[in-house]
UniProtKB/TrEMBL annotation:
GO terms for cellular component: plasma membrane; proton-transporting ATP synthase complex. It comes from Acidaminobacter hydrogenoformans DSM 2784. GO terms for molecular function: proton-transporting ATP synthase activity, rotational mechanism. The lineage of its organism: Bacteria, Bacillati, Bacillota, Clostridia, Peptostreptococcales. It is a peripheral membrane protein. F(1)F(0) ATP synthase produces ATP from ADP in the presence of a proton or sodium gradient. F-type ATPases consist of two structural domains, F(1) containing the extramembraneous catalytic core and F(0) containing the membrane proton channel, linked together by a central stalk and a peripheral stalk. During catalysis, ATP synthesis in the catalytic domain of F(1) is coupled via a rotary mechanism of the central stalk subunits to proton translocation. This protein is part of the stalk that links CF(0) to CF(1). It either transmits conformational changes from CF(0) to CF(1) or is implicated in proton conduction. InterPro entries: ATP_synth_OSCP/delta_N_sf (IPR026015), ATPase_OSCP/d_CS (IPR020781), ATPase_OSCP/dsu (IPR000711). It is found in: Cell membrane; Membrane. The gene is atpH. It holds the Pfam family OSCP. This is ATP synthase subunit delta. Residues 108-135 form a coiled coil.
Amino acid sequence: MAQLVAKAYAEALMEAAVELGQLEEIRRDLGFVADTLAENPDFNELFLAPSMTEQDKKSAMEEVFAKNVSKDVMSFIKVLIDKGRESELKEIRKRFEVMADESQGLVKGRARTSIEMTEQQLKALEEKLSKQAGKKVSLVNIVDESIIAGVVIEIGDRMIDGSVRKKLAQIKEELRLVVV
């Protein structure tokens, strides 16, 4: 249920951002608010406190963010407070980021490897995947020694497992099925 709510708010914000021609500004400002709350647990707790009135929450947010974020993002935050949905901000931001990336033909993913990839390796992999996907692919390299060697690519809900760990598991399964 919460994810559906976050998706609806993210879609509404995305529509407004595109209509206003301020996609990047709204993305930046929404990220700034979400990151500030995440980095300041006491302030975040205050923002989410049910004992604090809507007006007090709005005043606190206005005082902290009004000089640093657009009026549109401030209005959006106030709507979340009015609707009692301030706890959804993190998920709304996440979904908004994905929608904004998609609207610009960008997909983000992870490349898990047993050792850190060089910048050139990462760029070459991004270029190859971009050609296959027909969209610009941006990857973050995550070091995961359990992979042994190779790479596991995760983009959205898709995974390409080119790891030695997987190949060994396949061989083990094939050997298990061999009748002796």
